Amino acid sequence: MCHYCGCREIPLIKDFVAEHESVTNLAGGIVHALDHGRAHTVRGQLDTLARELASHWRGEETGLFAVMRGNPEFTDYVDRLEAEHRELAALLAAVDLTRSADRTELAAALGALHQHIAKEEDGLFPASLIALTAEDWDRSMAAWRAAHAGRTPAP
To answer: How far is CA 129 from CA 5, 16, 53, 65, in A?
Structure first.
């Protein structure tokens, strides 16, 4: 993520970045296991990844993304990000770790997760600093809280 705009200091963005780091670490462990022929060991990690991504995406999509979509300048960008969420969610739900082709597709998709995160952290998050009002931030934070069952955001 860039370090020039200061968006990392906003509690909601700080939470999104922390979640990105968590899912990136999980994804890296899964890819490492796949690369070393240990696909049979990753089912639990995949389930954890899917759960973490589901709450993360719900927080993004019902909050920050919904607010940003209200600006025609960002609608297509947000739509593409959400489409990527749906594609990865479908893959995680359907992947058959006994199939070589599925393992290869999974590893590629988890590798692409880095590019997806960069689109958010280097594109959408900095843009939110200039695009959102105080009311928009409140709405986005409320959606994050709802998606995370009362978990307190970062200070």
So the answer is: 8, 14, 24, 13
State pLDDT tens for residues 15-67. Answer: 899 999 999 999 999 999 999 999 999 999 999 999 999 999 999 999 999 99
Q: For residues 141 and 153, is the Cβ–Cβ distance under 8 A?
A: yes
Q: Which helix (H) or strand (E) holds 134?
A: helix 134-147
Give the integer Cα–Cα distance in Å for 109 and 87: 9
pTM of the model: 0.88
Cβ atoms < 10 Å from Cβ of 92: 18
Three-state DSSP state, 47: helix
CB 81 within 8 A of CB 116: yes
- Alpha-carbon gap, residue 106 to 29, rounded angstroms: 13
The residue type at 134:
A
Q: What residue has token string 């959102």?
A: 132
